[in-house]
Design goal:
The chain has three domains: 194 residues, FAD/NAD(P)-binding domain (3-Layer(bba) Sandwich), CATH 3.50.50; 138 residues, no CATH class; 127 residues. 34% of the residues lie in helices and 21% in strands. The chain contains 16 helices and 22 strands. Helix 4 runs antiparallel to helix 5 and helix 5 packs across helix 9. The structure holds flavin-adenine dinucleotide. The site of flavin-adenine dinucleotide has 34 residues, from helix 1, strand 17, helix 15 and helix 16. Flavin-adenine dinucleotide (FAD) binds next to helix 1, strand 17, helix 15 and helix 16.
């Protein structure tokens, strides 16, 4: 039995902690705030309740596996998972609307046929076949296995089988998501649909590799889920599973350093001046935090993966509305930008803030737990904003509420109260610089979108969560917990659990 000190109580760290405790280790989690869950926060006032972090769960299989491996009660006995159907409703710049059904590639194609016509629908269907091929190639190395020591193969090889395209007497194949849109989809609405999967992570589709086709594929193939009571219920369930496995939590305990002894991680230094000795350390924190904890020694990037900082954060407006949620309202509506050029310019940070018409995601859960009574509705509106972008919270809110008006009829008349959540709030809750949110690992692009491996150059120190392989997002963080536990329990030869 080893003594394992975990830094941070984010989802990746807790997933690792529960698995390590089941393997017989003594696990203590040190969390600088007074609560668990990291980005998965809940905001409550006036009888309303809102998710301030992610609002939906892709790939619940990752958390189902965690619950199966750490106890008798399955995930479904601890939280109520609800399939979100339609999975998303889209409002395009030209006013076209389409609702895409949950977890049905054929259903998505027929919905597109009805709104955009048979030719466009066929092109999206053909694209999904190619996206599936990319997924089949990338799934294991990018989600289920520890980062390959020869990760350069992933950095160089594009798994998406782009269609050769004749242009000015030359044959070219799409290398970026924007090129896939322009050359293979050839419809501004399909392009907007495709690019929205990159934009949702703050990635510029002109620089995002075609391999990001796996993002819409995953959603169309495996569906989107909501946790009844709000997404923080998932964090509660994982926290309680940790407690049931005798993981100890020390809240209000900021870690200020990783102790090193004989060239190995040997415990933690804490803000109150005390020391917590340990045989192994698992860090679930942002890269700049870890850099400080190891006194700027480069421990991440085993084999030189760059270990990128996150490009973007989020602005979210929480809306308390008078009047009940109308029957048949889509859970998620994506309102696409009416000015793609301005949005892409803003992503680069060049324009200094949010564009006038940002792409926004409007979430309107059908959940009585979020409202004081049936005569009210709770909704959230989120846009991506570059780290360090200017603009006041109220200026952001104004743009988001205007854009959301295309999804919620009569929004301004129904508005009782709103609250703006800024990158500074995210920084406060996760510790990441500028409130940056990590992106899922993607192949190609020279490795720019890979995150460093879960083992580090300092023996005994492992990294977990969105800033480590396999990158950001709830399922990815859960996978990183499984990978770290595998590497600790089975050793460096561990090659993934499936
Ligand atoms: C607004 C928002 C929207 C998001 N939307 C999506 C989405 O739509 N889809 C998606 O897949 N993902 C989304 N994410 C990202 C997703 O929530 C995270 O990738 C996921 O929760 C993984 O988090 P993590 O394990 O890296 O830990 P984090 O949530 O980053 O938590 C890190 C923890 O470490 C603690 N900590 C930091 N420094 C120290 C220290 N020195 N000592 C002790 N503790 C410390 C922090 O207090 C925090 O509790 C979103 C995030 C935010 C904020």
């Amino acid at each position: 039995m080893a003594r394992i000190a975990v830094i941070g109580a984010g989802m990746g760290a807790m997933a690792a902690a529960a698995r390590l405790a089941v393997a017989g280790h003594r696990v203590v989690v040190h969390e600088r705030t007074e609560t668990y869950g990291g980005a998965l926060r809940r905001v409550e006032w006036d009888g309303f309740s809102f998710d301030a972090g992610p609002g939906l769960l892709p790939l619940p299989a990752v958390y189902r596996d965690l619950f199966v491996k750490t106890g008798k009660e399955p995930l479904e006995a601890c939280v109520e998972l609800v399939q979100v159907d339609p999975s998303s409703h889209h409002v395009f710049a030209d006013g076209t609307r389409v609702s895409l059904p949950n977890a049905s590639r054929a259903g998505v194609v027929s919905a597109l046929e009805e709104s955009l016509g048979p030719a466009a629908a066929r092109r999206w269907g053909d694209f999904l076949v190619r996206a599936r091929e990319a997924w089949d190639r990338a799934r294991r190395p990018l989600l289920e296995e520890p980062l390959w020591p020869n990760w350069q193969v992933l950095a160089e090889r594009e798994p998406y089988p782009a269609v050769p395209h004749k242009r000015l007497l030359r044959t070219r194949t799409a290398g970026t998501l924007a090129e896939v849109g322009a050359w293979e989809l050839r419809d501004p609405r399909l392009t907007a649909l495709l690019e929205s999967y990159a934009l949702a992570h703050g990635l510029d589709p002109r620089e995002t590799p075609a391999s990001a086709a796996v993002l819409p594929y995953m959603e169309h193939a495996f569906g989107t889920w909501y946790v009844r009571g709000g997404m923080r219920e998932l964090a509660r369930a994982v926290y309680e599973r940790c407690l049931a496995r005798r993981v100890e939590f020390r809240f209000g305990t900021e870690v200020t350093g990783v102790l090193e002894k004989d060239g190995r991680a040997a415990g933690l230094e804490l803000a109150d001046g005390t020391v917590a000795e340990a045989d192994l350390v698992v860090a679930g924190v942002a890269p700049e935090v870890l850099d400080r904890l190891v006194r700027e020694t480069r421990v991440r990037g085993d084999g030189e993966v760059p270990g990128r900082r996150g490009p973007a954060s989020r602005v979210t407006v929480l809306l308390a509305l008078r009047g009940g949620r109308p029957e048949g309202t889509p859970h998620r509506t994506v309102v696409h930008t009416q000015d793609r050029g301005a949005e892409l310019e803003s992503l680069s940070g060049a324009s200094g803030g949010l564009p006038a018409h940002p792409t926004v995601t409007v979430l309107r859960p059908d959940d009585p737990a979020l409202v004081p009574d049936a005569g009210h509705e709770a909704a959230t509106v989120t846009a991506v904003v570059p780290v360090g972008a200017g603009g006041t919270p109220e200026a952001h809110a104004e743009k988001l509420i205007t854009a959301a008006g295309r999804a919620i009829p009569g929004l301004r008349d129904r508005l009782l109260r709103h609250e703006v959540r800024t990158p500074a709030d995210i920084a406060g809750e996760t510790g990441s610089e500028g409130g940056a949110v990590p992106v899922p690992a993607l192949a190609a692009a020279g490795g720019r979108l890979l995150q460093p491996s879960n083992s580090t150059r300092l023996p005994g120190l492992f990294t977990v969560g969105g800033w480590s392989h396999p990158g950001g997002g709830l399922p990815h963080a859960g996978m990183s917990g499984a990978l770290v536990a595998g590497l600790i329990v089975e050793g460096p030869e561990f090659r993934g659990s499936q």
